Every structure is written in structure tokens, then in C-alpha cells.
Amino acid sequence: MKIVAFLSLIYVVILLAIGASKLQKENNYKRCKSVVSAAVATGRLPKDTDIHKKCSSYLSFYVKSNNRKIASVENGKKVYNKCYSCHGHKAEGNSGMGAPALAGQHSWYLVKQIEYIRDGKRTSGRSKMMKSLFKKLSEEEIQDVSKYLRSLGKCK
């Protein structure tokens, strides 16, 4: 009888340990999902190396499954160097030239506007001048410059 009670207790402890392990994995998954979502949105990975270790497999799965690359804010700054003569060094805009402020604008909006101008769907203002620049940009560069501009702060 004592052996049966002891084995039952061990069985319960094992079940609890398995349940706790599954719960911990689920919590890690949720945490990694939010970390990766933030990284994709900002173009930056957190500096916490512990998170990198825990989330690296989820990150590679996310990037592969969504066929995406985390945009590089640093590369976006390099791409933007072609734009500052009209839009300003800090993307604050230039009303005299009719160049709107781009700093802090939503990345998805900037990507769409670049694509519309590049593809000839938007032809207003100085779109013709920008079209030749945008035709030379890769999809990655478009993502990068939009993330860089978003990182500059709120649009005024």
C-alpha cells in the first residue's frame, strides 16, 4: 500500500513538472514573439544576450516563415543620404521646396508611398524626380529607409 501511494506521489510530481515545463515554454514563446515583433517594428534587436539565446530559434523561424528580413536602421540612414537635400538632415521637411516631413511617419505608409511613386501610381508634386531614385532601391533598402525614418520620432 505504501509503495502504491509513493508511486502515485511520484507520478503526480512528474505530471506537475511536465505541466510546468510546458507552461514555461509557452511563456518563453509569448515573450519571444513580443520581442521579435518589436524587433521587426523598430529594426533593432534588444541588447539582452539572454533574450537572443532564448529567442534565436523563434526569430529565425519568424523571419523564414514570413519571408522577411529585419530592417536595418543603420542601412536606412545611408539610403536616406540621397533624400536629405530636399527633406532635411533630420527629415523635418522643407515647405519652401514642397518636401514634407518624413521623421516619425509610419513605416508601412512610407513603403506604400515609395512603391506608388516608383511604380507610377502617384505622380503629384515632385514624384517624377523621386521616381528615378526609387527605381534604383531594392525592397530591403525601401524597408530600411522606412524603418530609419520611423525611428526619428513623431511626425510633426
Give me the secondary-structure category: mainly alpha
User: What is the number of helices?
Assistant: 7
- Number of separate domains: 2
**Fraction of helical residues:** 55-70%
> What would you call the shape?
elongated
Number of strands: 0
Q: Which spans of ≥5 residues are poorly predicted at pLDDT below 50? A: 19-23
**Biggest sheet architecture:** none
β-sheet strand percentage: under 5%
State the fourth-level CATH superfamily of the largest domain. Answer: Cytochrome c-like domain
What is the CATH topology of the largest domain? Cytochrome Bc1 Complex, Chain D, domain 2
Average predicted local confidence, pLDDT? 74
CATH class type of the largest domain: Mainly Alpha
Rg for CA atoms: 24 Å
User: Architecture of the largest domain in CATH?
Assistant: Orthogonal Bundle
The quaternary structure here is single chain
Q: What is the helix/strand order?
A: HHHHHHH
